[in-house]
Specification:
45% helix, alpha/beta, Rossmann fold, six-stranded mixed beta sheet, disordered N terminus
Length: 328
């Protein structure tokens, strides 16, 4: 019986979906699904966590029960996946909902706080995997080959940069720093050193500021032209980064931003990039508002990451930033 049910599910071109939640966010999520028929999602109904009080519908889709009926409805409606959309007053139901999903052996996803009231990013952010496995495979091959070619071509230039750094300021040529990558993985990002040695020894982790006295003269030029980022070609070879994506942030700041900015962790679903929409649009972080604006750009990129036009636009803007020295 289970084998037959699994075979029937795998042969369908659509997914039967239950939305757990009876609130404005759940309605907005359904509207987005309705407007994206290519997703192949067939919403069978809503589950009202605090129980049914009367026959209720949203655009002809019924509330099929409360938590008492939840598991039975998963089986009766042949549900493939559960989308959990809880209002603040319903979040105490979450652990029970997840326990039911696990017992019923059905896939589930928790739709967390939306970035804006219009729920603009939900479908791209929660329903679909951010990039398909096929796209990731192609991108990884492109990243590796192109990074290797650039490293070979730029080796003489790297030697000149290293000499300039050493002549102005004693210390290491390269600088490594822990950053948070895809799925929260911690890795070491590589840069040419643009500040005095041990710049944060006394201050601890702080943002770089305009006219930062810790930045050397050579370092200031490298930052304006983004030359200091070139060693990250090694991070691309290692697979920690891609050419284009959200910039990786330090663990100290990531933990802080998670508490202050809704949807911050969504940018951790993809590999970070050497350049990206946020970098060529917003620039360096100096305030929390800068970070919030970058998150908006990052999410916009993630939603359109498979767009050739979007990626070419970012690369084109990056070239202008480098040539015009518009970095900080």
């Amino acid at each position: 019986m289970l084998a037959e049910a699994a075979l029937e599910k795998s042969s369908r071109k659509y997914k039967n979906i239950l939305i757990v939640g009876w609130n404005n966010e759940a309605a907005s999520l359904y509207d987005r699904i309705l407007g994206s028929p290519a997703l192949g999602f067939n919403v069978q109904g809503f589950i009202r966590p605090d129980g049914m009080q009367e026959d209720s519908f949203y655009k002809n889709v019924p509330v099929v029960g409360g938590l008492a009926e939840f598991e039975a409805k998963i089986d009766a409606l042949n549900i493939d996946e559960v989308l959990i959309v809880l209002a603040p007053g319903e979040k105490h139901f979450l652990s029970k909902i997840i326990a039911v999903c696990k017992h019923a052996q059905v896939s589930y996803r928790v739709v967390t706080d939306a970035y804006d009231d219009a729920y603009k990013h939900v479908v791209h952010d929660v329903i679909r995997d951010v990039l398909s496995a096929k796209e990731f495979g192609f991108r990884r091959i492109f990243d590796f080959v192109f990074a290797l070619i650039l490293i070979v071509l730029l080796l003489p230039f790297f030697a000149l940069v290293a000499l300039a750094i050493r002549l102005e300021s004693p210390g290491t040529i390269f600088y490594s720093q822990q950053r948070v990558g895809k799925n929260g993985k911690i890795f070491s990002v590589y840069k040419f050193r643009s500040m005095v040695q041990d710049a944060e020894k006394l201050s601890g982790p702080v943002w770089a500021q305009k006219e930062d006295p810790r930045i050397t003269k050579v370092g200031r030029f490298m930052r304006k032209t983004r030359i200091d980022e070139l060693p990250q070609l090694m991070n691309i070879l290692k697979g920690d980064m891609s050419f284009i994506g959200p910039r990786p942030e330090r663990p100290f700041f990531v933990e802080s931003f998670k508490k202050q900015i809704p949807m911050y962790t969504k940018r951790l679903k993809v590999k970070p990039g050497v350049t990206g929409l946020a970098q060529v649009t917003v620039g360096y972080d100096e305030t929390l508002e800068d970070v919030k604006e970058k998150i908006r750009c990052d999410i916009e990129y993630i939603e359109h990451a498979d767009s050739i036009k979007m990626n070419l636009k970012i690369l084109w803007k990056t070239i202008f930033v480098v040539l015009l020295g518009e970095g900080q």
